[in-house]
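# step 3/5: fold
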Amino acid sequence: MSAEANDAGAAPLDPSQLRFLTRGLTPEEIAAVTAVLTAAAAEQAAADKRAQAAPGPDGWARTQRALRRPLSPGYGAWRSFSG
């Protein structure tokens, strides 16, 4: 449980932070809810980590792109300005 939480980059869930509104819960029920919430938090953290945007081209690569279409010489290519 803690290995999954640490791999996902999330802090482990502290059961003392949970507040149950339903009375008369058994320790097994509390443990089950804590396990489900911990797994859900770890899964969400892993999904968020995978969904991070890929970095775009840096400033140097952006300046190297073509400023206009390349010239294509050929029959009639130089006679018209219609583009």
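# step 4/5: annotate
The chain has three helices and no strands.
# step 5/5: archive (pending)
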